[in-house]
Specification:
Length: 403
């Protein structure tokens, strides 16, 4: 059985001191830290293996191509889907833009696109742009006390029969785990295409996409121990292949003539130009690393840490915690009295505590919660009880300064 506590030693940055304070990293929802395995694979690639993919007959290029393509198999196996159903992109943002662009080719003024109130701007703005281009309507599902109103959402979906439901599996601002299973099943019965933003769920929930039965799922490597600037999207093959091309250029073509060009089948037709080869290989190393950890042990550990943090935070008078604390991946989003979240985060930083403050790229959600932002402490399995103590002590000291 995996000793989750010992995995912390695989993350060199966590031993860092900041201005004489040990780093207390509670910002994994922004980006996760990287284990040695990922760092080493990327370094080794550039030291010994660097070459372009898909276009060389020489050994280095052939090896790089094999590594790049087997990384696709690694993530496909992790998500329990077919290898040809995975497209590499620069991350969740690009994946969502690709989907909003591609799916909007079918939108008209009768089309309805449903989103949840919890969405990251990356899962709002591309759809908004698509609606503006096509005359389609953006429908926002209801929220109740900081949690998605599941029954209200289902009723609205049945009433409007949207063309697309695009929603996050997990809220980045609050950590809420959304009931995507029931909404996907309603959408599948209605013929509504489902796009699940998995940026925050890939690492914590390890979804089985066959079981989830969504049409599309997007993700970023850097939220799941991998490098920045790379990620991807899954699509049920027929639907994926039916999407029009997004970015164009070399490598994604079958034949180019000055009059017109023809394109490869998916996933190739969505991957023009030289890809982020070291990023993809580093991402596969991150998935290999995660595969060695027992998922239920990891979730039990993260939940125990989360509830310990929550309990200690609630003992501080004047703290308001937002969101769903029953179904949560380990994110605590809070404010203290009327103090500005920016001041809290800035003072916490002087104690080596790295938290996020602001609207977390969810301005509409913040408006619904009637705040202009929160402090967000987000956990991962490499955090420990010392981090929780450190954070609570730093917060108490910060509050003493502000009161
Ligand atoms: C829920 C969610 N969706 C989308 C994104 C965008 O991801 P990226 O910046 O890696 O493209 C993020 C990043 O914070 C996120 O948390």
């Amino acid at each position: 059985m995996t000793d989750i506590q010992s995995l912390r030693n695989d993350f060199p940055i966590l031993n860092k001191q900041l201005d004489g304070q040990p780093l207390c990293y509670l910002d994994s929802a922004a980006t996760a830290q990287k284990p040695n395995k990922v760092i080493d694979v990327i370094k080794t690639f550039y030291q010994n293996e660097n070459s372009n993919v898909h276009r060389g007959l020489h050994t280095l290029s052939e090896n790089a191509t094999v590594r790049y393509e087997s990384a696709r198999e690694t993530i496909a196996n992790f998500l329990n889907v077919e290898t040809r159903e995975i497209v590499w992109t620069s991350g969740a943002t690009e994946s969502l833009n690709l989907l909003a662009h591609g799916l909007s080719a079918r939108f008209n003024s009768d089309s309805v696109i449903a989103i949840s109130p919890f969405e990251h701007h990356a899962n709002i703005v591309p759809w908004q742009e698509a609606c503006q281009r096509t005359g389609a309507t953006l429908l926002v599902l209801p929220m109740l006390d900081g949690v998605l109103d599941e029954q209200g959402a289902i009723a609205l979906l049945k009433q409007h029969k949207p063309d697309v439901l695009a929603m996050g599996h997990v809220s980045n601002a609050l950590g809420n785990i959304h009931p995507v299973e029931s909404l996907i099943s309603v959408c599948n019965a209605l013929g509504t295409i489902t796009v699940i933003d998995g940026a925050q769920s890939l690492l914590h929930l390890r979804p089985d996409l066959k079981a989830l039965d969504c049409d599309f799922y997007v993700f970023s490597a850097h939220k799941a121990l991998g490098p920045t600037g790379v990620g991807g999207l899954y699509g049920k093959y027929q639907q994926l292949n039916a999407l029009p091309v997004y970015k164009t250029g070399g490598e994604m073509i079958k034949e180019v003539n000055f009059e017109r060009s023809s394109y490869r089948e998916a996933p190739g037709k969505f991957e023009p130009g030289t890809p982020n080869i070291s990023g993809v290989i580093g991402f596969a190393a991150a998935i290999d690393y995660v595969n060695e950890i027992d998922p239920s042990a990891l979730q039990r550990y993260e939940q125990a840490l989360y509830h310990s943090l929550l309990e200690k935070l609630r003992q501080i008078k004047g703290i308001t915690v937002y969101g769903d604390t029953q179904n949560n991946v380990g994110v605590v989003s809070f404010n203290y009295k009327n103090e500005h979240h920016y001041d809290l985060a800035t003072l916490l930083n002087t104690y080596g505590v790295a938290v996020r403050s602001g609207h977390h790229c969810t301005q509409p959600l913040m408006k619904m919660l009637k705040v202009n932002g929160t402090v967000r402490a987000s956990l991962a399995f490499y955090n420990n009880q010392d981090d929780i103590e450190h954070f609570i002590n730093a917060l108490n000291a910060t509050i003493d300064l502000l009161d």
